[in-house]
Amino acid sequence: MTTKTHIVGLSKDELVAKLKELGFESFRAKQIWHWVYSKGVTDFSQMSTISKDSQALLAEHFSVARPDIAKALTSFDGTRKWLVQYPDANKVETVFIPEEDRGALCVSSQVGCTLSCTFCHTGTMPLVRNLSAGDIVHQVMIARDGLGEWNKRREDCLFTNIVMMGMGEPLFNYDNVAKALNIVMDGEGIAISKRRITLSTSGVVPEIERVGRDLGVNLAISLHAVRDDLRDELVPLNKKYPIKQLLEACKNYPAANNARRITFEYVMLKGVNDTDADAHELVRLLKDIHAKVNLIPWNPWPGAKYETSSRNRINAFAKIVNDAGYSSPVRATRGEDIMAACGQLKSDSERKGKVWLGDTPPTNA
Ligand code: SAH
Ligand code: SF4
């Protein structure tokens, strides 16, 4: 039995080449691209501009089916979550966070993570595998399916933004992430602009420049500490790429300017990184960088050794950063729930199950 090539995840050039092998002209690739990425079809029989015979030939060699959805949940506040199950049984979570007139999808790049940041639940699990470009694009397509936004006018769509902040370190899977984002950004398909995509990294310094140069998306840095000794502990990758090197790469980031600032994510850990002195040092470090700060109340998980900073402490920290001229929004309470889902394992989401409708709440919630 020959395994079928999945169309989702092929670049446009690859699609043209694959179809050519079957005798199709290149305009057919364009049509198929349109059906798959503009219309969201999941079966060749839905491609009405293609003859029945050609549809059958395509279906023999290719697939446009979605991966399974192991679970689909909706929160009280409208947040949506899909547990996507790939054909090899690996699963990742994709979370959609709606706001007033926009909404962001939190997308995963790996099953597990090679890094082991001490405050992150994903960090406690080993890397199982990198997601392919198709696996990543499918998360976006599943969200569009679930939100019913394939054939809507752009201005009527709530799904406007993507954040690569789910499970895994996107810059340790650069090629697949880049390929996926190029597919998602393609104007003849899903067409989410680079200005509406943010990639978060724990600081893989050598890859940062080409994210800006080749993809041009917004950058977010998981900073979390202002001194190397502490960051070495919280984000062990810091031992390889210390703060100074990381900030140097940020200064030179090709896609940042005054209007498009780099987001510095800073998780607030009680008694660890949350003093006034830390806030002042943060401001000092960000001098000369087009920066904004995103303070994230730490989201607890079983067995973790941290506590979330108090609301007063977070506000005092935010005020220092704000007074220095940096926007420093604190991720809202619902954001805490989102972080729980974004980049966390299934078991962890079940623990937070009380927020979700349509699921059996854990008895100890
Ligand atoms: N690996 C990438 C992207 C995924 S993590 C990175 O580290 O940037 C996305 C964000 O969630 C990161 O800023 C990460 O530090 C943060 N995060 C992880 N665990 C968290 C937790 N328990 N509470 C709050 N934020 C967390
Ligand atoms: Fe991996 Fe990011 Fe979690 Fe660190 S914070 S373990 S890099 S997913």
What is the CATH level 1 assignment of the largest domain? Alpha Beta
Q: How many strands in all? A: 14
Rg measurement, Å: 21 Å
Helix count equals 12
Bound molecules: S-adenosyl-L-homocysteine, iron/sulfur cluster
**What is the spatial order of strands in the main beta sheet?**
13-12-11-10-9-6-5-4-3-14
- Fraction in helix: 25-40%
Mind telling me which CATH architecture of the largest domain this is?
Answer: Alpha-Beta Barrel
Compute the average pLDDT: 90
- Strand proportion, as a percent range, falls in 15-25%
**Which ranges are low-confidence, i.e. pLDDT below 50, for 5 or more consecutive residues?**
338-365
Q: Structural class of the helix and strand makeup?
A: alpha/beta
Number of domains: 2
Helix/strand order, N-terminal first? EHHHEEEEEEEHEHEHEHHEHEHHHE
The CATH H-level superfamily of the largest domain is: Aldolase class I
Form type: elongated
Largest sheet, if any? Answer: 10 strands, mixed
Q: Distance between termini? A: 47 Å
- CATH fold name of the largest domain: TIM Barrel
